[in-house]
Amino acid sequence: MKLIAIDYHADNADQAFVESLHQTGFGVLKNHPIDQKKVDDIYKAGKAFFDSEEKHQFLYDKETQDGYFPPTVSEVAKGHKTKDIKEYFHYYPWGRCPESLRQQLADYYTQTTDFAAELLGWVEKYSPDEVCRHYREPLSQMVKNSQQTLLRVLHYPPLTGGEEPGAIRAAAHEDINLLTILPAANEPGLQVKSKTGEWLDVPCDFGNLIVNIGDMLQEASGGYFPSTTHRVINPQGADQSRSRISLPLFLHPRPEVVLSDRHTADSYLKERLRELGVK
Ligand SMILES: O=C(O)CCC(=O)C(=O)O
Ligand SMILES: [Fe+2]
């Protein structure tokens, strides 16, 4: 298995992209419409926020899940014991947000959710008929006017040597949502697990857009689109002193959307958040 960046403007981009999602759970796009300068500006403003004391005024709300999650509460991936080495901020249009980030995050959120709806249209178009029969409503409609779609500004601080043994920036996990849209971070480290069990580096050239399947789309497609395990490994040597910022957008359906005979989006999300220890 190999991940190759697909040119968004190529004639067969949509088909090649969906085939990659089916085969690997991941698809990488280049020359896409998400403005890299805007992403970079958010990385800078995000870094300044995490470096400030202001972040403590935005401590996350357990019920609504918006706000700042400090390293002391950050997720323990399913099946793991050590906490990830990261802190993050959860942005929702209805949630709390520092003024220094509000406008940029709002613009990015709107633009990227619209783009994601286009990608869900591609997924639907190239889903085989027997898979489409599982979808209770068009995929792009599942996320329309959803209040649940989440933009996460993530900061992996420089390593100090005092980390818990075995802890890594993000332990192996799968995403919970339908689809995740992730611009390449400012530093490498993201890896995806292949079907044969090896860890492969995700091409992280600045400007690439990485898209991956989450558990909800795996559930809704009866497993045709796999929610693939991924992780973020620790840097080595001199790179340990560098922090890493990333900006995943987790596309979530409206809570009442039926994913399968077993689950609505809401029942599924609650179960998974309890497992993560953040609910
Ligand atoms: O930081 C990254 O590159 C990936 C983050 C991630 O996988 C997650 O937050 O679910
Ligand atoms: Fe993830």
Secondary structure topology:
Blueprint: E1 5-7, H1 13-24, E2 26-30, H2 36-51, E3 67-69, E4 87-91, H3 99-125, H4 129-132, H5 139-142, E5 150-156, E6 170-173, E7 179-183, E8 190-193, E9 199-201, E10 209-213, H6 215-220, E11 230-232, E12 244-246, E13 249-251, H7 265-276
Parallel strand pairs: 1-2
Antiparallel strand pairs: 2-10, 3-4, 4-5, 5-12, 5-13, 6-11, 7-10, 7-13, 8-9, 8-11
Helix pairs in contact: 2-3
Residues 152, 154, 170, 175, 182, 185, 190, 230, 232, 246, 248 line the site of 2-oxoglutaric acid.
Describe it.
With 279 residues, the protein is α+β, with helices and mostly antiparallel strands. The chain has a single domain (5-276), classed as B-lactam Antibiotic, Isopenicillin N Synthase, Chain (Jelly Rolls), CATH 2.60.120.330. It is 29% helix and 19% strand. The protein has 7 helices and 13 strands. The chain has helices at 13-24, 36-51, 99-125, 129-132, 139-142, 215-220, 265-276, and strands at residues 5-7, 26-30, 67-69, 87-91, 150-156, 170-173, 179-183, 190-193, 199-201, 209-213, 230-232, 244-246, 249-251. The strands form 2 sheets. Strands 1, 2, 3, 4, 5, 7, 10, 12 and 13 form a 9-stranded mixed sheet that branches. Strands 6-11-8-9 form a 4-stranded antiparallel sheet, with no helix packed on it. Helix 1 (13-24) links the parallel strand 1 and strand 2 (26-30). Helix 2 (36-51) packs across helix 3. The longest helix has 27 residues, at 99-125. It is globular. Fe (ii) ion is lined by residues 173, 175, 230.
